[in-house]
């Protein structure tokens, strides 16, 4: 028997808290974000969405492209730094990563990880095909990840790893959906080296940061066994190959500067 829901939901939390989810948007405290001299100022954390940006920038460096230097600052989401006024000015949604391009006038903010990938790919004409077929297929799989990822993170990951109770219904629901998504990728990669064919693109970066890391058991403890990820042999091949790329390795090993004195 479940509790009866009220006609109108009300929140009984503490609105004065600096961290934690609340049903309202906007900044909760004054904050000045540090800025360095590099063209790009990146405010992020090493989460699946956060690493997309650092991997992308390091892959651009690996291609020998100039002008992709960046200063990297840690946004400690556990301490609510994403709700400070400085970060909210960059991203009203208070989610990492967020980036400032200082190489243009006026400086331009870019938020949402998929938007950052697309912005950098178009700005430097790299990691996205120029022809309409390749570009569209890249966009297909980039936006597929953007739409599908929340079922893995906010759905499966939350109820499998973080929820205070192990509830069978949501775990079963999101496990089924996660495995369906893994199967989609596995079937696709049976016919292609990368997601759009023989070319490595931002679609691979976006998807590997979630599904590749999940396949390599680097997201939620015990989830690889639970999901039987080794049965997705094509996905495993892709995940392992991308993990060996120098740009990917550096994108994972980057050092974050604090936004305030520790």
What does this structure look like?
With 262 residues, this protein is an alpha/beta fold. The protein has a domain at 132-245: Glutathione S-transferase Yfyf (Class Pi), Chain A, domain 2 (Up-down Bundle). The protein is built from 9 helices and 5 strands. The protein has helices spanning 48-62, 85-90, 113-124, 132-162, 168-189, 202-215, 223-227, 233-243, 246-253, and strands spanning 40-44, 70-74, 98-101, 108-111, 257-258. It has a 5-stranded mixed β-sheet with strand order 4-3-1-2-5, covered by helices on one side. A hairpin with a 6-residue loop joins strand 3 and strand 4 (108-111). Helix 6 (202-215) crosses helix 8 (233-243). The protein starts with 39 loop residues before the first strand and ends with a strand. It holds the Pfam family GST_N. This is Glutathione-dependent disulfide-bond oxidoreductase. InterPro entries: Glutathione-S-Trfase_C-like, Glutathione-S-Trfase_C_sf, Glutathione_S-Trfase, Glutathione_S-Trfase_N, GST_C, Thioredoxin-like_sf. Residues 16-25 have a biased composition (Polar residues). Residues 38-128 form the GST N-terminal domain.
Assembly level: single chain
Q: Helix- and strand-based class?
A: alpha/beta
* Mean pLDDT, all residues: 96
H and E string: EHEHEEHHHHHHHE
Q: What general form does the structure show?
A: globular
CA gyration radius, whole angstroms: 19 Å
Which fold does the CATH topology of the domain at 132-245 refer to?
A: Glutathione S-transferase Yfyf (Class Pi), Chain A, domain 2
CATH architecture of the domain at 132-245: Up-down Bundle
Give the strand order, joined by hyphens, for the main sheet. 4-3-1-2-5
The share of residues in extended strands comes to: 5-15%
* DSSP strand tally: 5
| Helical fraction | 40-55%
Span of the ends, CA to CA: 48 Å
Number of helices: 9
**pLDDT below 50 for ≥5 consecutive residues: which ranges?**
none
